[in-house]
Structure formats: structure tokens, C-alpha cells
Hints:
By secondary structure, this protein is mainly alpha-helical. It has helices at about 1-20, 30-45, 50-65, 75-90, 100-115, 120-125, 130-160, 165-175, 190-205, 215-240, 245-260, 290-310, 315-330, 340-355, 360, 365-380, 385-400, 430-440, 455-465, 475-480, 500-515, 520-540. Helix 10 runs antiparallel to helix 11. The radius of gyration is 35 Å and the shape is elongated.
Amino acid sequence: MTDFFALEAGEYLDRLDGLLQAPATPPADELVRLARALRGSALMASQQPIARAAMGFEALARGLREGRRQWDTATKQLATRAVDDIKIFVRNAGKWSDADTAKAEALASQLEQLGGRPSAQVRAAEAMGLDAGARAFVAREGAAIASALDRAGRALRTNPLVHDPLQQVLKAIQPLRGLAALNDLPPLPDLLEGIERAIGELNRTTGNAPPGWGDLVAELFQMAATSIAHAAREVAERGRPDPESAEFRRFAGLLVKFMDSEPDVVPIETLGTIVRRGTAASATRPATLGRVELVSHGEHLRQAADSLERAPSATQRELRAHTLAGTFRVLGAAGGGPVAERVAEFAQAAREAVSSGIAVNQATLFAAELRKAGEVLSASGSGDETSTAAALAAVTLAIRRLGGEAVPIESLMASAPAPAVRPAPPPPPSTPADRARRSAVVPAPPIGTESATDIAGSWMRYQQLVAGGVGPASLEELISGGRGNGGSNEAVDIRTLLYKGASAQHRAQELRDAAKRASGETLRAIIDEVCDLVVLAIEPE
């Protein structure tokens, strides 16, 4: 490692020496680049004192570039002597001593004093890794993005469905996306994310746009141009942009309005006359989510929860929450099966929380539930479908209750097929005494109506019964076994509850529709029930 460092550092020092000996003024940018490369090479080789000396030379080069130090004969002599001293340090790397460490520190301090002390704003920017060159890069690329956005806005005002200007914007965004310190410059990352999200939605839009939509899209892109130009200018002047600037708040509001006003899917009947209605191809049916996809969605939800919690301003929090709406829409359209249906219900509840403002007003609680859902899906690769579906149902219930919503328990029940038994409707409560007697003994729920065969499923069933007017639980009535009920607990022949004849055929047709969306154990249960219904359909009503 030491030998390789000596070769690499020697090359950098020779190039620096060549620049310093030239009769013309050396380019300051090249001096800074070579000094920074020398410092990085020393750090990689664990030569900290040499890296410290290279940092001092880099400070002198930045002083020349930023005008704090003039290039004259004295500066040329000092820089040349510094390069010669660093060459000696490199030769001594294999037999380093404490005296060499002291000399390297003294050289670094001398060079930093010659380079001058930068301003407080420049020091703050450099503390994040943004020197004058990086700030100039942000300003230049930000201006290019703003220009592309402005041209796209004018084109979209004329034709909201044109796509060529959108590709030019994406191409202009790429260089700034590659900046390592971009995440330390809020709200620039959220601005770029919002622009890319809007372009993605526009690329998926086909057909006729609603009236006024073109003006909204054009205003969104032109405000994005204003916001990113303002932020890039602040980076160049102060080292960091204002995350709560008026331009960014205006852009966030327009983006939320745009995402809430996307054109809906138009029925094909409204676009022409159907001569002959065809049969839907089976290949168009959504596929069931696999374990790999579930784990991938889980990791994404966990990252989204962290991003929402780390939002440094209220405007960024609102923008990040509404950006998640697209993710929830994708999850809501994924395949069939018990887990996929629970995922769709969770996505619908989360999307409603975003659109109602709950995800922003209660960001910490919403992010916690989002993280729970991500953990459930991430662990679904090693768990069974029943436990995964039950855990997702619990998260969905918690999200819907964030806004104080009275959640219908039926919407959280699993989609397991019902048995070939016709459920008997409960008798209407005639008196308060009857309601109290019925609340004494809670009947067992029909098979397939609970989301899990555990205490969570039992509690959900109990809440369903209470919502239906059963009345409060009574331990006394439970112990008495419901005696005094006027003989209403007489045994009922189970054969009177079975499907027969036409009712069995109707039930089989329902199961046929359910089988198109089922798989695995659920599909096998449907097949078993259909086999039972074949026998029952032969019998008369």
C-alpha cells in the first residue's frame, strides 16, 4: 500500500510542480483538483499527516481561485517549496517519525494562513462538502433544469399530452441527481422528486384531458422552474437553499392539486359505438403478488416511513406524503389472493389518510403504521399467508382509526369462501330484555368470516356483533346459559340451513367468480365447496 501510494502521490506532485513552473498563471481549478486527489490518496493509504499537508495546499489553491490570494512571485515560491516538502514527506512514508508529523502540521497551518479564511457562509457550505466549485455546479445545472422546465411548461399549455419536452427535462435533471451532497440541500431533492413524479403521471396519461388541465400542468412546470432556479441561486450565494421558501410552498401546493386532479379512466362506451362486445382475455387479469414482490414492497414502505419522519419542514412533509399516493395506487391494483387483498385494503386506507391530511397532521403516527406494514411484508417471505393477512388487517384498522373513523369490521375480514350453509338472519330485538339475553351467549362466527383464528379475529367478530345491536356482554347471562329465553334456544335441524336446488346453483355461480381471484389454499377450499354444492343442487328446494 505504501509503495502504491508513493507512485500515485508522486504523479500528482509532478503535475502540480509542472503547473507551478509554467510562465503563465496556473489554473486554480486544476490546482484544487490535484491537491484534493493527493489528499484522498493519502487518506486511502492511512497517511494522515501527509493528507493534512495536502489539505493545507488545497486551502491555498482555493484562496487563489476565490480571489483571497493573488498569484505573484512570493506566492509562486511558497507553493513550489510546499510541493517540494510534500515530496519529501512521501519519500519518508515508509520510515515516518514524530518529527515528520510536526513538520507536516506546521506546513499545513502556514498554507491555510496564506490562503486566507473563507466567509462564514462558505465555511458552512464547505462543511457539507460544497466548495465554490460544487456551488457553481449546482447553480449551473439548476439554471439548465429551470430552462427545460420553462420550455416544457409552454409546450404543455398548448398540448397537455405532448411528451417530447418531458424527456428533455428528465435529461436535464440527471447531472444534478448525481451530486453526492444533494440530500443535504433541502428542498432540492423533493423538488426533483416531485418533477419526476409529475412527468411519470403525464407519461401515463392518454386520451382527452379535462378542461383546464393543460393550464394547471403548465403552471406546475413553470413554478417548478422558478423554485429550482431560486434554490440553485441560494446554494451559489449562501451555501444552502431555504426549505420553506415561498416558491417551494407554491410548487408543493400545485403538485398536490395536480395529483388530485389526474384524469380518470374513461369508459370505452363514451369513445365510440361498440359493434360486438368481446370476451376479456385471461392474460389481462392481475397476477398474484409473489413473496419477492411482497418483500420489495415492504422495504419500500419502510424507507418511505423514514423519509416522512425525517422531513425537515412542514411543506416537505406534505409533499412526501402526497408523493406516496402513487405507491399506494400501485399496491391497490396488485393481483388476487388473501394477502394481496389485504395489501390492497391497506393501500386504500393509506391513500385516504394522505388525501384527508391525516398523514401530514399525524405524520409520526402514520409513519409508524407505515413502518409496521413494511415490516409485515418484509417478513412475509418466511411466514404463512394467514398471519401476514391478519397483521396487515390490524395495520389497516389502525390507519383508519387515526382520523377517528368508525371502521366497518366487514371490510377487514379475510376473503375465505363461505361454507355451503345458508346463514340464518338474527331475529330482530323486540325488547331490551331480549337484547340482553341475546348478548349473554355470543354465537360462534361462521367459518371464513374472521381474518384470523386467533384473539384478534375473535375481537373483530365481537365488535361486528356490537355494531349490529347485540348489546353489551353479560357474564350473568353467560353463566345462566340464556335460560328464561322463552324457549328460543331450541335446536334447529342443520339440514334446513343447507343450500338446495336453485339456491345451490346461485351459490356455485358466486364461487365461480371468486375462483378467478383466488389461489393456493383459498382456491382448493372453493373447489371443495363446489363439489358439495353439486350434490345439493340436485335436491329440490
